[in-house]
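Journal club prep — side note

Before the paper discussion, L.F. wants everyone to see what a predicted structure for a comparable chain looks like in token form. Sequence:
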Amino acid sequence: QVQLVESGGTLVQAGYSLRLSCAASGRTISNYVLGWFRQAPGKERAFVAAIAWVPWSGNNTVVADYLKGRFAISRDSAKNTVYLEMNNLKPEDTAVYYCAAAAVSRYGVNYYVTEDKYHYWGQGTQVTVSS
């Protein structure tokens, strides 16, 4: 069992940067793929980014194509925490951001881009970007 708690969401102006944190407890995150999803008002939850640790190659990451260049995911295994760095924020980035965890499997990180791959979810943190 893994418990996930997101933090860092707030109201910011367009163009600003923000870093979200997801603290995991219960199990070490090295055994899990960690992902970020977001749900904008009136829309379905969408994939943002995921990170997996592979013994022979280190951290492997994937970011949604439409967010590449602005968003990045990282993890601090010592703190059992995963981060989402968001730069040059836009009003369309306004959403509730969710952290999720999936048990590591034989598949690469690119496999973990849909909700059904994840078993554990946080409660979400609100990010609002004003124009």
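L.F.'s comment for the group: The chain has no helices and eleven strands. Keep this in mind when we get to the figures.
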